[in-house]
Amino acid sequence: MKPKPLSSKRSDTLFSLLLDLPAFLLLLSFIVVPIVDSVIKSFQAYGVKNIITKKPGVWNDFANYLYLFKTDDFVGATLHTFSFVIGVVLVQFLLAILLALILNSNIRGARFMRSVMMTPWVVPTVISALIWMWLFQPQYGLLKYLVSLVTFGHLSDFAILNNPSTALTGVGVAALWKQIPLMTLLLLAGLQNVPQDISEAAMIDGAGKIRRFFSIILPYLSPVIKVSVSMSIIENFKQFPLFWTMTGGGPNNSTTTLAVLSYREAFVGMNLGSGAAITTLWMLMMIAVIFGYNKLFRVQEM
Predict the structure, then answer these.
(1) Is 238 exposed, middle or buried (0-12, 13-18, 19+ CB in 10 A)?
(2) Residue 221: pLDDT over 80
(3) How far is C-alpha 267 from the chain's CA centre?
(4) pLDDT of 5 strictly over 90
(5) Would you say 194 and 217 are in contact if contact means Cβ atoms under 8 Å apart?
């Protein structure tokens, strides 16, 4: 008896699953398994002896989490992380929407700006950090030189990255320089899909630029805004290379975020258990923020 041939729908389903299999295996191997392993280690005493002897960690329930909440480092790192994310994402969105509106107009040089604006985004993060470290250099940095021209050489202290009150802002400026181009490009693509006939009809009815922006442009841009801001929140929540290259978490832990603290605990202090606990809490915070943002955005759309 000959086997019955597969139906067209079933064969398409099997072919789709076959195409998705490599991506699923990569997701399972490099994301799901490490996350599960990290969560398990967060409930274990896993230190340098376990790494050397390759022995499994000893289960210690919530000892790693209790240790974190007893120290000021975790609370400070959490505050620094949220301050950095809120500040960078807010400024990034405002500047990106402004640049997108400018590039969407008919001003001279708009095409050239569109072609070169992605340069900061394609530069590797570590290279971006080194560039801004040079710009912020307190003795011979370019920014110090420009400010000294304005102040006629009366500025004596301009150590942005060495000052605990300005170091987080300095890293935020570097993050903005690198991330603004991508959000601008996304918002620009959304602006170009706004129907011109509706905007022209509103202009004929007497609606000004501000009214058209809030009543027509923003509603059409809402899906793009939702995605681009979500990407920015995730990117800045897990930001590590800029902090570690530019400041190493200093000075005086003023730029120690959850990413830096987890790295210090796990790979500097060789305490993988507490490092995994920080990573687990950090991941849960990021999920909660994204979930809250999406829920708030959904309420605003209603």
Answers:
(1) middle
(2) yes
(3) 22
(4) no
(5) yes
pTM of the model: 0.89
Instruction: Identify residue 266 by its one-letter amino acid code.
Output: A
| Domain residue limits, the chain | 46-301
Tokens 């899909």 sit on residue: 193
Q: Which residue would you say has higher pLDDT here, 105 or 225?
A: 225
Sequential DSSP letters for 75-113: HHHHHHHHHHHHHHHHHHHHHHHHHHHHHTS--TTHHHH
Q: What is the CATH number assigned to the segment(s) 46-301?
A: 1.10.3720.10
> CA-based angle 16:18:19, to the nearest 5?
65
264 falls in which pLDDT band (50, 70, 90)? very high
